[in-house]
Structures are given as structure tokens and as C-alpha cells.
Amino acid sequence: MTHFTVAIDGPAAAGKGTIARAIADRYSIPYLDTGILYRAVARKFLDLGAKPSDAEAERIAMRLVPDDLRDDRLRSPEVSETSSQIASMPAVRRALKGYQEAFARQPGGAVLDGRDIGTVICPEAEVKLFVTASRVVRARRRYRELQAAGTTVSEAAIQREIDARDQRDINRPHCALRPHDDAVLLDTSELTIDQAVARAVSAIEQQMRAIQLPGAAKLPGDILQQETDLRKQPHGRKNRIQEQSFT
Ligand code: C5P
Predict the structure, then answer these.
(1) Which of 23, 43, 164, 185 minimizes the number of CB atoms within 10 Å of its CB?
(2) Which residues of 129-145 are buried (b: 16+ CB within 10 A; e: fewer)?
(3) Is the CATH number of domain 6-232 3.40.50.300?
């Protein structure tokens, strides 16, 4: 089976997850939200009532089980903040690396989103996207998301949280958030979900054509032949994500 991996990086609430899910759906490849791994470690920490120490965080990261990723409290602002602190610990990143690498290399490929996917976890990914949006737009999106989920927190508080997480992600010495040199940049500030997904699909298909050089491994025909109608989904399913707008 041909390998086809899409690495998506970018700051919090830029639209990475929405785009990644739509791509996974469109090409029928598995998707991993790598932020959920750091969130699960953070949740366990908070449950222990402990202050994150490197050794303890590493121990928790090494023992994560699938059920830890299904905890419905993983999106809370408290977990967001703690996960961002934990993500700057090299031992934690090391402990979570093998799982992400194996996911990226599975037969047929995968879509992963995070902060260091194109640069550290999977620099060999056939397609790398770096998804951004202005800080104000991202805070507003997260605010509406949390509001819809019934969490009461002010937009100003969310802006502060996102700014602090951005700074940590960008400035940490290991696996800092930055685009890979080959990444296609996609700013979603002014885009609806449909438009953002369409740009991502177009970047993917352009990239796949570009690397389909004589002598290169054969690429999956359906990736190059699919219609550009984004509502046409595999198995006749209609993708709800694409009918909504980011904001
Ligand atoms: O993507 P999400 O906001 O859910 O990630 C939670 C935190 O995990 C981020 O603030 C970031 O610090 C960290 N993270 C990371 N590397 C990744 C994914 C997430 O450092 N690949």
C-alpha cells in the first residue's frame, strides 16, 4: 500500500484539528490529534494534585492507555494550561514520541496535527501544512467552542491563555513550534471551514503531483483523481464539519 502522511502544525485554535479531520475523512486515512496526548498527561497530573516534576510527568506519559485519551475533561482551560507546561519537558516529549512516529508510519499513511509533527515527529511526511490565524480570531473561536460546551470563561481570559501557550510553544528549546521549511502556510483568519479545507486539499494535491516524479513510488490514484467537490465524501457520507463556519 502506498504511504501518504500529512503533517499539520500550528498554534492553538488555528483550525488544525478541523482541517485534519476533514482530510482524514476525505482520503480515508487515520487521524491523530497529538495535543490530546499532552492533555491526557496533564489531566492525570491534575488528578494527582501534584506539581509537575519531570520524572513524574515522564512516568505518566509512559503509562498512558487509550482510555486516558477519552476523558471528557481534556478540553478544559485548566488542562490546556497544564498540558502546555508539561509539553516543554523533554522527557515527556521523548516518552510520547515513539507512539506518534509509529502512528505516522502505519501502512497507507495518516494525518497528524500538533506543534512539531513536520519538524520532529515526521519530517519525511509527503505533505506538511502550517495552519495559522490571528491571535484574536483564535481566542474568539476557542471562546465560542467553550461557550457551546457550557464552560463559562471570559474571552479576555482565553486570549491570555492562548498567548501564554503560544509563547511557551514558540520559545521552548526542544521541539519548538515552527513551520518546516517545506511546509505550505495556510492562514485561516478570514476563511470559513469550507474554504480552509479546500485550500488544504488543493495544497495536498499539488504536493502529491509535485513528488510524482518519474521513478518515484506510485501515488494513490484516488488522491489525484478525486473531484474537487468537497462535499463528496468516501462511502457517500456527508461531512458535517464542512458545512459549519470557524467563527
Ligand atoms: O493542540 P492542543 O492545544 O490540544 O495541545 C495542547 C498543548 O500540548 C499545547 O498547548 C502544546 O503546548 C502541546 N503540544 C505540543 N506538541 C504537540 C501537540 C501539543 O507541544 N505535538
Answers:
(1) 185
(2) bbbbbebebbbbbbbee
(3) yes
Contact 204, 23 (CB under 8 A): yes
Output the CA 199–ligand 1 centroid distance in Å.
23
Domain-wise residue ranges, the chain: 6-232
Asked if residues 11 and 169 have their Cβ atoms less than 8 Å apart, the reply is yes
Per-residue pLDDT tens over the stretch 63-98:
999 999 999 899 888 999 999 999 999 999 999 999
Determine the Cα–Cα distance for residues 53 and 47; give it in Å rounded to an integer. 14
113 pocket-lining for ligand 1 (C-beta < 6 Å): no
Residue to substitute in 38, 45, 121, 131 for testing ligand 1 pocket (most ligand atoms within 8 angstroms of CB): 38
Instruction: Find the farthest-apart pair of alpha carbons in the chain and give their distance in angstroms, rounded.
Output: 58
CA 240 – ligand 1 centroid, Å: 25
| Pocket lining: 25 vs ligand 1, CB cutoff 6 Å | no
CA of 226 to the centre of ligand 1 (A): 32
User: pTM of the predicted model, to two decimals?
Assistant: 0.86
